[in-house]
Amino acid sequence: MEIKIRNVDPVALKKIDEMAKRKSISRQEFLKSAVEKIAYEKDITEKEARLEMIISKNIEAMEQMNYSVTRLENLMADLLEE
Predict the structure, then answer these.
(1) Is 68 helix (H, G, I), strand (E, B) or coil?
(2) Distance CA 64, CA 51 (A)
(3) 35-66: per-residue pLDDT in tens?
(4) What is the residue-wise DSSP string for 12-67?
(5) What does the alpha-carbon distance between residue 22 and residue 20 come to, in Å, rounded to a whole number?
């Protein structure tokens, strides 16, 4: 699909060209990437938030498991000393 944009400020266009050049890509590739990023940004942000929540829950579960294992180790050490 094609998109045509008219009346772009020449200064803005020059800056876009400079950014594309720094990335060693064409203006078209640079703008295509920017448009696609805008289109998917909300989805990506939501997925990142879900991933952060999952990681947080996993860390919490691992801390609880560590606490339980430490208690069991201490209990077994106490039992073996008797």
Answers:
(1) helix
(2) 20
(3) 999 999 999 999 999 999 999 999 999 999 99
(4) HHHHHHHHHHHTT--HHHHHHHHHHHHHHHHHHHHHHHHHHHHHHHHHHHHHHHHH
(5) 5
Q: Are 24 and 31 in contact (CB under 8 A)?
A: no
Structure token digits, residue 63: 């801390």
Residue 63, burial from CB neighbour count under 10 angstroms (0-12, 13-18, 19+): exposed
Residue with tokens 């008797």: 82
**Does the predicted model carry a pTM greater than 0.85?**
no
Asked if 55 contacts 65 with a C-beta cutoff of 8 angstroms, the reply is no
Residue with tokens 């579960």: 61
